[in-house]
């Protein structure tokens, strides 16, 4: 019954959406959304790795034409002020999977395993409930393809022990793009692959994703088709900088070699995302699939020659270029196309948005499972919100009045509406008004010490609410590297397609 009903609803909604695109009234869009949203949506979370804010054409790139990501943005909501909760990979992903700042449970650095640390804490602590666990309770089939980077020291850290029914990818933080049978760190669930399915890893991850999202076969008409959640965690365009020769050739006009390879990697990922969108469309699943696309942190200007313009900064800093990322939500059954959302949102919102869309009740402060040692009546504090009412204009306030970031020996930052207090470890505190100065070039702390003081007090109050000190931190040598990142001069303008100017080595 349910299978037939969903098929009919998808067919009706596609016809109504076609009429809407042809110029028919908005009431048809409302009719389509009410029909399709009656069924649980499929859920697709796509995460790029170290991708620059300015490296999508819908975010201003002149060198990389990302037609499929542009298609996703045009058909849904493109957020201009989308943030992640950490400026490097692992703590950002820890926040993504929990809906909580990683600093709350001691995960605010990239993973390390000092001798004094118990094995179970070299990853997301085992008492944290992750997004796929919540979705399994709602009847979802769950899968992850790609990069994990959230722990492997004990068996309980494995994705298949944290709520995922299926895993193909690597447990660590990076991987070569041309794996061989003898030299790779890939796993299918718990087993090593015995053959290379296709030579280039981004393409292989896409093939695994296409297998996972295809409709279930041989489901009796009177049984429910199980909805799915897929976390497609590309390692593109994280180093090592490796691309297919045919993709590199498309960017022969770019003079900087590293930038040329970066653009080729980015192009390849965009093409692969197009294959997934096409598959969802041809199988009648696209209208009622909630797709979220983000990068895990800002682009690495030094390593991969990413472009974060018009933002200053890079991966590893709390400048906007380290923490503000492209953020796209696409769900034709619920969200209207062509929305540009300019209020601050954060990747911590993905968990409550997805859980609510799936028909569940997202965790809230003091409203979930009790665990010893937590604040607020011994219960965890959650930091995200369901964004759909904000996107639809049903809720007029900002999703977040204040956002926070911290990383021991690297610094901290707090944003309150348009004001941002930046507290690097290697420089004096700085105050910026992002509405007037998106590139953070005009430090206003001398003119507005009262605003800086208020934001500092907010930061201290937030730090007081954290449940653990950092469980692991970066080696002391990172302090010098971090200083160099803040002292660096960054280009705030997009390079022209054939520009010969080196904007990465200043």
From TrEMBL:
Q: Which Pfam families match?
A: Sulfatase
Protein family = Belongs to the sulfatase family.
Alphabetically ordered keywords of this record: Calcium, Hydrolase, Metal-binding
Task: Specify the Sulfatase N-terminal domain's residue ranges.
Answer: 41-359
> Which PROSITE patterns does this chain map to?
SULFATASE_1, SULFATASE_2
Q: What is this protein called?
A: Arylsulfatase
What taxonomic ancestry is recorded? Bacteria, Pseudomonadati, Planctomycetota, Planctomycetia, Pirellulales
InterPro entries referenced in this protein's UniProt entry, alphabetically: Alkaline_phosphatase_core_sf (IPR017850), Sulfatase (IPR050738), Sulfatase_CS (IPR024607), Sulfatase_N (IPR000917)
Q: Where is this region: Disordered?
A: 359-378
Q: Which GO-annotated molecular functions does the record name?
A: arylsulfatase activity; metal ion binding
């Amino acid at each position: 019954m349910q299978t037939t009903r969903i098929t009919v609803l998808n067919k009706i909604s596609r016809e109504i959406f076609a009429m809407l695109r042809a110029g028919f009234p908005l009431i048809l869009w409302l009719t389509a959304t009410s029909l399709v949203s009656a069924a649980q949506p499929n859920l697709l979370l796509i995460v790029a790795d170290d991708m620059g804010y300015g490296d999508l054409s819908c975010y201003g790139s002149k060198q990389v034409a990302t037609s499929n990501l542009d298609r996703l943005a045009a058909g849904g909501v493109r957020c201009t002020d989308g943030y992640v909760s950490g400026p490097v990979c692992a703590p950002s992903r820890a926040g993504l999977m929990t809906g909580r700042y990683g600093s709350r449970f001691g995960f605010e650095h990239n993973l390390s395993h000092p001798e004094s640390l118990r094995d179970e804490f070299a990853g997301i602590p085992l008492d944290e409930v992750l997004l796929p666990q919540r979705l399994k309770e709602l009847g979802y089939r769950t899968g992850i393809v790609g990069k994990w980077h959230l722990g492997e020291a004990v068996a309980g850290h494995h994705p298949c022990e944290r709520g995922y029914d299926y895993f193909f990818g690597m447990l660590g933080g990076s991987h070569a793009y041309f794996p061989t049978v003898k030299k790779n760190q890939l796993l299918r669930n718990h087993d090593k692959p015995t053959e290379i399915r296709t030579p280039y890893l981004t393409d292989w991850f896409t093939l695994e994703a296409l297998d996972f999202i295809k409709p279930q076969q041989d489901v009796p008409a009177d049984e429910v088709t199980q909805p799915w959640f897929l976390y497609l965690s590309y390692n593109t365009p994280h180093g090592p900088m490796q691309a297919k020769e045919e993709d590199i050739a498309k960017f022969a006009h770019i003079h900087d070699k590293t930038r040329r390879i970066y653009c080729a990697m980015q192009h390849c990922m965009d093409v692969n995302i197009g294959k997934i969108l096409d598959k969802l469309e041809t199988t009648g699943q696209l209208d009622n699939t909630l797709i979220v696309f983000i990068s895990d942190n800002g682009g690495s200007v030094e390593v991969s020659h990413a472009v974060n313009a018009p933002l200053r900064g890079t991966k590893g800093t709390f400048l906007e270029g380290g923490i503000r990322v492209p953020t796209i939500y696409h769900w034709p059954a619920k969200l209207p196309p062509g929305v540009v959302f300019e209020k601050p949102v954060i990747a911590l919102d993905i968990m409550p948005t997805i859980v609510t869309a799936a028909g569940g009740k997202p965790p809230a402060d003091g409203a979930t499972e009790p665990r010893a040692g937590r604040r607020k009546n011994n219960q965890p504090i959650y930091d995200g919100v369901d964004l759909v009412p904000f996107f639809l204009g049903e809720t007029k306030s900002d999703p977040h009045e204040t956002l926070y970031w911290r990383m021991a020996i690297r610094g901290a930052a707090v944003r309150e509406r348009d004001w941002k207090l930046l507290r690097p470890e290697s420089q004096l505190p700085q105050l910026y008004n992002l509405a007037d100065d998106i590139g953070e070039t005009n430090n206003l702390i001398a003119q507005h010490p009262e605003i800086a003081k208020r934001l500092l007090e907010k930061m201290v109050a937030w730090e007081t609410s954290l449940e653990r000190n950092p469980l692991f931190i970066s080696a002391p040598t990172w302090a010098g590297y971090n200083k160099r990142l803040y002292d660096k001069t960054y280009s705030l303008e997009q390079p022209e397609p054939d520009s010969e100017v080196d904007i990465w080595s200043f």
